[in-house]
């Protein structure tokens, strides 16, 4: 089991939460919530925590997340619980979480 963390700059605050996917064979879940406020106000950064059953693929996770954060500018805390999902599924679940949060389909 591998535990990875990533941080990305953000431009806007996220105000709602979302939960998409399930942890199961070849899938993952994404939990998206507003970033914790810092001592001087809202934190404008995204913090991603990945818990994955597949070790040794940190460079792939970084590549997928780097690509995602070229389009997404929300200050959010994102938790990903993975059970062997492909990069395409990861990208899909991240997009679904953002859409759910922006549509107000919160947890």
TrEMBL record:
Q: Which organism is it from?
A: Paraburkholderia susongensis
Q: Superkingdom of the source?
A: Bacteria
Question: Signal peptide span per the entry?
Answer: none
PTM text: Covalently binds the prosthetic group of malonate decarboxylase.
What Gene Ontology cellular-component terms does the record carry? cytoplasm
Fetch the InterPro entries from UniProt.
Mal_deCO2ase/Cit_lyase_ACP, Malonate_deCO2ase_dsu
- Please provide the record's keywords in A-Z order: Cytoplasm, Phosphoprotein
The name this protein goes by in its record: Malonate decarboxylase acyl carrier protein
Q: Where can this protein be found? A: Cytoplasm
What is any Pfam family matched here?
A: ACP
Annotated coiled-coil segments of the chain = none
Q: Which NCBIfam families would you find in this protein's record?
A: malonate_delta (TIGR03130), PRK01220.1 (NF002293)
Query: Which sequence positions carry the modification called O-(phosphoribosyl dephospho-coenzyme A)serine?
Result: 25
């Amino acid at each position: 089991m591998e535990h990875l963390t990533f941080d990305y700059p953000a431009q806007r605050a996220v105000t709602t939460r979302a939960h998409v996917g399930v942890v199961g064979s070849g899938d993952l879940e994404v939990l998206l919530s507003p970033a914790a406020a810092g001592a001087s106000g809202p934190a404008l950064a995204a913090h991603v925590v990945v818990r994955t059953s597949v070790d040794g693929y940190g460079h792939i996770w970084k590549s997928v997340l780097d690509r995602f954060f070229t389009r997404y500018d929300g200050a959010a805390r994102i938790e990903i619980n993975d059970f062997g999902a492909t990069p395409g599924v990861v990208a899909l679940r991240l997009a679904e979480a953002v859409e759910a949060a922006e549509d107000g389909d919160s947890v």
